## 1
Amino acid sequence: MNGDGRLTDVLDPEEKAQDECGVFGVWAPGENVASLTYFGIYALQHRGQESAGIAASNGKQILVYKDMGLVSQVFNEDHLRPLAGHIAVGHVRYATTGRSAWRNAQPTLGPTPYGTIALAHNGNLVNTQELMESVREKSGEDLTGELGRGSSTDTAVMTALLGCLDEYGSLEEAAMGVLPTLRGAFSLAFMDETTLYAARDPYGFRPLVLGRLASGWVVASETAALDIVGATYVREIEPGELLAIDESGVRSQRFADATPRGCIFEYVYLARPDTTIAGRSVNAARNEMGMVLAREHPVDADIVIATPDSGTPAAIGYAQESGIPFAQGLVKNAYVGRTFIQPTQTMRQLGIRLKLNPLREVIEGKRLVVVDDSIVRGNTQRALVRMLRAAGAAEIHVRISSPPVTWPCYFGIDFATRAELIASGLTIEQIRASIEADSLGFISEEGMIAATTVPEHRLCTACFTGKYPLPVDHARAAAGLDPLSEDS
Ligand code: SF4
């Protein structure tokens, strides 16, 4: 562990886009809500591996337990037992706003005039400074809750704002007043002592779904988390919608008109393959992307292999469409990732091999098609190509099931700065030379969009196209300020 309490990620050679969080909420009298939430956030672990937390209410008080680490590292039976009650929210975090540190872990907890709030957030706000000014206007220097404890996240600011306004009669009313002032991406699960709430920004950048249990209701970032806790999928929480769930049932209110622009990168890489978004199976979308890729960038080769696991559905699609057999050429060590153990220099030099190991008997002498979902900085692919050549590959043809990532994301995905994105400064031929592949092909924007079956005007594709759903002030963003101009 680093001196500041951070987990180290230097063992993780994957330089993929990092998703920012997963949220889960349950209202279910008579159920063990803490255990359900544990398994819910376990199912969402891929969305964030830096911290995990659960808040639970017994109707009178809310208890929170959270810490740095994976869900399985943070919780055991002794931690879950005191989290008794009939409502819970859970969270897994990858840091986007605010450093990776204990004080920024979620759910955030804070006082309100009507009780206590515990809040879990997936996304990234772009007017945090403006919101912080509103908090200071109300609270002065006397900050309470997570801000008072030193948190620096947009989530802590949002939580404070929901708690510092005294003109409303309930948290539900306060949410209807505050949610329209938040700008950017937010899929929220939050609660007071008696009610579970869920809300999604008007663009619906990040997924959020409602599920039904025999004895209650569940909200979760992905449908896969509903499946895993035995909940039945009911529907997506609409962009611009606030749900309140208590003993009266589910109440829906609209705090803004919906202008849906779901993140296409959820289909490419971020979401689990066994999740469904906007009626489209993520696995089916990735298979289709592989098929399109095979049509757009055919090549003579002996086998198709995937960069596991995220490249596998597209590699299967490429193999089906091209008729070239699919084979497992790389074995993933699934349990290497973020760890509290500092690696030695020798281990650092092993790089990608800590995570992926080639199967020499499959690869040797073969012309390979290697399918991956995206290229961000290019370092992983270069190391992979070198490793496959060392294992005896005769030719290496890299195929990528998303177009080149050329723009930063301001809506919660941590790619890299624009200068670090390999595709923002190089042509495709230069990228091919840089990663030392024999050939390189990216799926077209049209092909990727068509594979989702979602109309283009309902998707955000900004990191590939530069067409942001909201006006973006890149200079402010580069200066570390809110990326959107205040008057946009
Ligand atoms: S910029 Fe890219 S990663 Fe960010 S929300 Fe849009 S499509 Fe998703």
## 2
Amino acid sequence: MWYVSTRGVAPRVNFEGALFSGYAPDGGLFMPEELPQLDRETLCQWSTLSYPGLVKELCALFIGSELLPKDELNDLIDRAFSRFRHREVVHLSRLRNGLNVLELWHGVTYAFKDLSLSCTAQFLQYFLEKREKHVTVVVGTSGDTGSAAIESVQGAKNMDIIVLLPKGHCTKIQELQMTTVLKQNVHVFGVEGNSDELDEPIKTVFADVAFVKKHNLMSLNSINWSRVLVQMAHHFFAYFQCTPSLDTHPLPLVEVVVPTGAAGNLAAGYIAQKIGLPIRLVVAVNRNDIIHRTVQQGDFSLSEAVKSTLASAMDIQVPYNMERVFWLLSGSDSQVTRALMEQFERTQSVNLPKELHSKWERQDYEKMAVMECDGCCVELCLGNCGPRRGSMTDIPGTAMVRGGG
Ligand SMILES: *Cc1c(COP(=O)(O)O)cnc(C)c1O
């Protein structure tokens, strides 16, 4: 399996190449060159798999056994989930009226990022050992990513991790999760300022290409393809848990509400849909509503400032993974995607081209509507869950799922 940049200029890479890159050299994000199509028979076979079983199948589909043989891949994934508290790893709780909650919080730090980061760290470790290399992961965090990244690489032989956290701006429990790990390869710094200000020195470091190369620095944020890949399993697992039978024509449709920040999980769901999973994605955002404006009005423009809400993991101004969504929406048109993203980078504001926006509405609006949320309470959301407006708080590591039995 080859990966191409959404901007179409950088040369294609294999999974290992995508795993170790943040952005592609042309500023784009890596995506599979071709998306496989899962037929009904495959879906039926997968429908009885456990969550780790689904991660294994999806990874095998997108990694290629010449790079990572299946039995070794399976071992890595088992190791990744070995410290999860729930025997199913991910659990679907059934509420009333066909509403369900996908419990993605059973990892060590309780953040849903534990799932994708623990696998990603195993993949990194596998290739680093094989190539006898070492990397230093640099992460800035407001909480969830830092804790989960530390947990996933702590003790790894070929990796060090440096985490910058904004002093006083993380929850107490997350600050403790980060500052109480005693492993030699974990380095945590509390810094003055908020999480935006903390990004500045990190950006400066990564802009110094020679320095990055010399010290083998890498990031582990949600633009990493491996994280997106693993997260596809959330959607498959939710789907199969919600559909008692796959005998109907067409297959039953399941609606998945995705609390969204950088849109990594959303991109994963959209790819899952593209390869044949009959889901309808509902994007849940808070007052940081750039995706809402994009879908409603084609207005992909930066707001003046990040607005702080109760759901700090969703307080994101630039949802980087929307580039993947645009690329898919445009039918893998890297020229359109590049023009769009380069204009956004220049002016921080783009009106989606009409063809693209109308495509969204015509073909995908039914599948990808936006719900605006405002940090109230969960019950409200359960009552109002729908394609228009609801109100919800982001419970760490959940997705609401509706459909099936
Ligand atoms: C990271 C995170 C999000 C945002 O996920 P994306 O994939 O970046 O959209 C939402 N909720 C919680 C609790 C998170 O930790």
## 3
Amino acid sequence: MTNREILLTRRRFSRKRILRGPYYRIEMATPAADPRDFLYKVLVIGELGTGKTSIIRRYVHKAYSEHYRATIGVDFALKVIQWDENTVVRLQLWDIAGQERFGNMTRVYFKEAVGAFIVFDVTRGATFEAVLKWKNDLDAKVHLADGSPIPCVLLANK
Ligand SMILES: Nc1nc2c(ncn2[C@@H]2O[C@H](COP(=O)(O)OP(=O)(O)OP(=O)(O)O)[C@@H](O)[C@H]2O)c(=O)[nH]1
Ligand SMILES: [Mg+2]
């Protein structure tokens, strides 16, 4: 090897170059300058058989079934929304069994939720009358950091 070849080889493998290389590639591979990821816990509550599980299955899995299987306790589903180029929103949907209004687990299930849907069945008046009971239970057991009630949407189903 001539002196010139040794010099070129040293330059090619210099510490500075090796360190600089990977950093450059990482920058190129990350288009989002400020990627943001938000996770929200959202409750879906309401009387037995009003369609809470069906709504969630449709929204998350794009599926529907006429077969009714009562939810026992609580089920979970995750809806991932690519909000914009830099923002991902994850909705952690808590599908709470209608029969839980008579149980004592709702305090645990409602904890740290930041939003809720209350579902009723337009063909069964009693499920609408129960909406207020669900709302009162919700407001008694969970609130936002500033003490205000969590945002809640009333859903008329069927
Ligand atoms: N016709 C009609 N039926 C529906 C609709 N949504 C749900 N159902 C039916 O209603 C029944 C109950 O639906 P679910 O989604 O299991 O109700 P749920 O609120 O999760 O019930 P629980 O888990 O017991 O609290 C099922 O047989 C569904 O197929 C709707 O929009 N229209
Ligand atoms: Mg259900």
## 4
Amino acid sequence: MNLKLFKPLFTLAVAVSLNLAAQNDAPKYSYTEAFKPFFYMNNATETRSASGQPGHNYWQNSADYVLNASLNDVKNEISGSAEITYTNNSFDNLSFLWLQLDQNLFKKDSRGNAVVPMGGSRNGAHGQDFDGGYTIKSVEILSANGKNLKINPKYTISDTRMQIDLPQDLKSKGGVVKLIINYSFVSPDYGSDRMGVEPTKNGKIFTIAQWFPRMCVYDDITGWNTLPYLGAGEFFLEYGNITANLTVPANQYVVASGELLNPKEVYSSDQNKKWDAARNSEKTVIIRSAAEANAAEKNSTATKTWKFKIENTRDFAWASSSAFILDAAKINLPSGKKSLAVSAYPVESDGNAAWGRSTEYTKSSIEHYSKRWYEYTYPNAVNVAGNPGGMEYPGIVFCGMSSKGADLWGVTDHEFGHNWFPMIVGSNERMFAWMDEGFNTFINSISEQDFNKGEYYTPKPLQSMAFAFNSDQMEPIMTAPDNLKERNLGFLAYYKPSAGLQMLRENILGEEKFDKAFREYIKRWAFKHPTPEDFFRTMENSSGEELNWFWRGWFLNKWKIDQAVKNVSYKSGDFTKGAVIKLENIGQLPMPVNLEIKFKDGTTQNVKLPVEIWKRNSEWTFEVPTTKEITSVQLDPKGSLPDANVSDNTFKVDGNSVAEKVDLKQFIGNFSSKEIPLKIVTTVENNQLMLQATGQPKIPLDYEGADKFGFSVAGIEFQFSKDRKGFTLNQGGKKFEFTRD
Ligand SMILES: [Zn+2]
């Protein structure tokens, strides 16, 4: 799913950072707490190895579906049957089954509706006065444990779950039950930002998901996973093969998860030729043009049935519309296999500034992730323009039809990144959103650099997000999405876990070790159900590094990173004899040290120290064998760590040579703004202008010339007026005016 929190929060970074930044009254760093043993809560089992791989008796149940459904495009109603073949590979006999009835979220009296606050939510039916949910017409067991039965079992519906009592236990280790459920539901217009119906000039766009009764996961961790669908928590699903026969008005075009089995029946021979051309084309081929979409009939009483099949999948989604422009291009996979990038969008979204490049984006994303992490397994990858802002399904995603340019690239890349997490690596999204959204946001950050030589890439040093990562207002990452404030989901499920992997890769393990371990995790758990411990154990076992301190600090707790340079001196007071640097670890989350020494002659030297210096110390003094005079020592010069207080990260040895040229006293004062509720005080210390918001730590500003000061790690500038009566605070183009009180 897509959350566009980044930009608005980024522009307010200053306001928030100065309001929420590090509290200085935190307890002192305890190294025994950071590195204490017995991190893992569970020992190895026969299903999950201590090394993080599936155990020697790992099992997983499977669910295959044959889905027949028809769409009434006037009533927005789907009616159908789901024939489910469920295989119990567990060691347990099962006397009942649990299924997910996600559409019941849209019943007026659902638990999900009950938890929508008065201020609204992106979940639920989004203000539509709507009483949706399933009409279950029949439940029939066709066979169980190899015996034909044809009986109607007792079933109980409780919110978004259905329990079916079995006439006899489903046998362990391979028992198979076949059942068929007849149902219907009316689609909400805007279904929790994940599905819906959007009117366009040339007809409605139906984006259909969470639409058929699906098996709950039965596993070795909790048995039946029956948490209800409340909105924020996404899905946890079994793997299997799905066939879908979708009957829609004859003027509509259907795109879906998996391969279309009857192209000759649903496309003209000319369109079929264009599909064949696209399969061999690096460039996007138009299959159905804007002119065709404009000229097509708007209503049809006749119907067509579109037949699809997808293998080894955890879900199936589809979209149907008379309004679709369709285009496609070949996807090249590392093994030499091919897949197909497809886009379906209305004329409103057409054009190269918008969806005209969707197929190019799709192709690039799938090729990138396949090359770097694990090869894509589905026959096509379809991007559909609809009203969900961005939502992922196996082989198909729905993105906002008004998305354009960098936004469309970003959301397309994000939703297809989900094909790796959670479509390939099938973690429990309802419990651990960070394992899909966070891991995906992380792989997106690398894909973004790769696409078209960084066309849409903007570096975002983690230091610039420190205000959020260090906020005391947020829950720990290891909090289920339905258990945390909705406004915090963007940080806790997306950006903070992604930043965790980025630090693990760039600051702790290094790219080579990290990439090898992360690939190993994906390979081990492809089409399986890993837990957080399986991930942590795999990363430690593959890299050979103890990481319990990092898992504890970043994922389980809200420990802060805060390092400081306490002192720089010369041996015997003589710089030709070497320098002595004293560091302090203040935050409870220790990190390896990377610091930059600047010398008076303009040269620099980098020093790296392992995290082990913090295993029995909170201060560390070491010698740098140098013969040159030092001007400054700076921790983390590139801002790659979200240090909670950067004002103590730089130690200046002999003042700021640039600052000598200006009289810093002119910039001292108390300032306030009509635009944001912040009081700012500037002072001069050690020949440097310091800025402080009321009650918050000071940050050092560097003079950049022409009355301008910068705080470069957060990308903030302060442009003073000629008369010094105020300044303009500029962050990423967002400006706030401050005047002297
Ligand atoms: Zn997402």
